[in-house]
């Protein structure tokens, strides 16, 4: 997995969460990667839908609803890896 692609995904997720929560996300990338969008950032279901819409638009991908639970995409690192994989395989 390309490190620059992963860093880009982390930056996109950080910006989206900052916009949704109207507050900066001031944590190191290594810590951010291991965080949970619901538990650590307090995103609710509407916030999650907004975030998913944002990343789907940014990456021109569709995230199937079952993947959210099956791949534990509420974790930042899992979502970043998923986005890199999805854009690599052109999903």
Topology pattern, helix = H, strand = E: HHHHH
Global shape: globular
Structural class: mainly alpha
Determine the fraction of residues in helical runs and give it as a percent range: 55-70%
CATH superfamily: ACP-like
- Portion of residues in beta strands equals under 5%
Record field, number of beta strands: 0
Report on the architecture of this protein.
- It is a single chain.
- The chain is mainly alpha-helical and 91 residues long.
- The chain has a single domain (3-19, 26-89), classed as Orthogonal Bundle (Non-ribosomal Peptide Synthetase Peptidyl Carrier Protein, Chain A).
- Helix content is 65%, strand content 0%.
- The chain has helices at 3-21, 29-33, 45-59, 65-70, 76-89.
- The radius of gyration is 12 Å and the shape is globular.
- The mean pLDDT is 92.
For this entry, give a set of tags.
5 helices, about 90 residues, Non-ribosomal Peptide Synthetase Peptidyl Carrier Protein, Chain A
Can I get a quick summary?
This protein has five helices and no strands.
Secondary-structure blueprint of this entry?
Blueprint (H helix, E strand, L loop, with lengths): L2 H19 L7 H5 L11 H15 L5 H6 L5 H14 L2
């Amino acid at each position: 997995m390309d490190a620059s692609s992963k860093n880009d995904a982390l930056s996109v997720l950080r910006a989206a969460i900052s916009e949704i929560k109207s507050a900066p996300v001031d944590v190191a990338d290594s810590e951010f990667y291991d965080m949970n969008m619901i538990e650590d950032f307090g995103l609710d279901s509407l916030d999650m839908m907004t975030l998913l819409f944002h990343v789907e638009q940014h990456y021109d991908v569709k995230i199937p609803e079952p993947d959210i639970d099956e791949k534990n995409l509420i974790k930042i690192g899992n979502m970043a890896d998923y986005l890199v994989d999805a854009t690599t395989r052109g999903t």
